[in-house]
Amino acid sequence: MIYRTEYMERLKAFKDQKIIKVVTGLRRSGKSTLLEMFKDELLKEGVRTEQIQYINFELMKYDSIRDYHQLYELVVKKALPDEKNYLFFDEIQQVKGWEKAINSLSLEYDADIYVTGSNAYLLSSELATLIAGRYVEIKMLPLSFKEYYGYYADSGKTVQDVFNRYLKYGGLPQLLAFPDDEAAINSFLSSIYDTVILKDVLARNNFKDIDLLKRVFAFVCGNVGSILSSNRIATYIANEAKLDRSFRPATVGNILEMLENAFIVYRANRYDVKGKEVLKSLEKYYVVDTGLKNTIVGYGLDNYGHSIENIVYLELIRRGYEVYVGKNETKEIDFVAVSKDEKLYIQVTQSLLDESTRERELAPFQNTNDFYQKIVITMDQNYVTNANGIKIVNLIDFLLS
């Protein structure tokens, strides 16, 4: 198991505080392992087993616990009234009204509470009302390349070989135990995809049309990094599947929102560089893991550039940036990354060695009328690190920095 330092440090920062720690993210991205590791650290620090309750709602033994009354009664039976209680609830979204039980336990006991869930509905308006100001969300992604490479650092594999595997199969932690068997890996990734679609999208939203849902997701996977609209997707699917022309773009919009809420796709809104405002149409979409994307659309060369752009997007999210697509008059900047301390303009390209490609990739940086740092991230391994004040960075170096 990989020690997820960033996420562990965030949990430790809120340990023993009356703040409910809510870890969200895609299924199998490492949330359960994170809680298990944190529980083990508590035991090493001297916390007694009796002080800890760990409930994983994916297990059959908790299958009967499906509403907040049952959850409350289960925990109270073992809760210690005069000691600190450490309560862990894994995939708690399966319990209807769970937030009511958690709120009551937090008020009645000296309880340090940790919760995970695989759907953004976990943080509903009801939860926010019940425990407003008393919870913190920790958004978990699959392994970064830096974490992934750390696992292979002493294996004798070159950094390029490890990157190629990461780019192809993605960063879901369980894949580290797999041999380089493409069929086995594809089977595993397909099972994760099916579980997310069935449990976190269809069942959670009471949506029945699995074929349409899969077609929309496949379109997103095949068009990562492209400007999309519900109208465009609806028209394409209607033509491809020979559907009734009454097929509504609004339905596509609802499906995209469902996929976002299941943490399987992420949306990047457009940002007007000149007007300094976020635009509300024609977004880009990225997939939470390149392995899941490639399972749907394959490993062809036509998907390579999309995959490296997808990886850069996810890395920027990991580093705490709000990430937008830049609109600079008629040209597009791949990413505008904004944090409290800085703003970055970023272009992602496979190579800058071709002159026409270089001109095309650098052109969107012109006439921005500000002094924010401009960066091109490329697969090139070159001694050139600067072009007229624009920083040029190798992708692997960027990911390991």
Q: What secondary-structure arrangement, pairings included, does this model have?
A:
Elements: H1 5-13, E1 20-25, H2 31-44, E2 52-56, H3 68-78, E3 85-90, H4 98-108, E4 111-117, H5 125-130, E5 135-140, H6 145-152, H7 159-169, H8 182-205, H9 210-222, H10 230-241, H11 249-261, E6 265-272, E7 277-287, H12 290-297, H13 304-318, E8 322-328, E9 331-338, E10 343-349, H14 355-362, E11 373-378, E12 386-387, E13 390-394, H15 395-400
Parallel strand pairs: 1-4, 1-5, 2-3, 3-4, 6-8, 10-11, 11-13
Antiparallel strand pairs: 6-7, 8-9, 9-10, 12-13
Please tell me how large the radius of gyration is.
Answer: 23 Å
The DSSP helix count reads 15
Sequence of secondary-structure elements: HEHEHEHEHEHHHHHHEEHHEEEHEEEH
Count of beta strands:
13
Instruction: Tell me about the largest β-sheet.
Output: 8 strands, mixed
**Whole-number average pLDDT?**
92
The residue ranges in which pLDDT falls below 50 over 5 or more consecutive positions are: none
Helix content: 40-55%
Q: What gap, in angstroms, lies between the N and C termini? A: 22 Å
Strand content is 15-25%
Structural shape: globular
Structural class: alpha/beta
Taking strands numbered 1, 2, ... along the chain, how are they ordered across the largest sheet? 7-6-8-9-10-11-13-12
Written overview of the protein:
The chain is of the alpha/beta class and 401 residues long. The protein is 42% helix and 21% strand. The chain is built from 15 helices and 13 strands. The protein has an eight-stranded mixed β-sheet. Helix 3 runs parallel beside helix 4 (98-108) and helix 6 (145-152) packs across helix 7. The longest helix is centred in the middle third of the chain and has 24 residues, at 182-205. The radius of gyration is 23 Å and the shape is globular. The protein starts with a helix and ends with a helix.
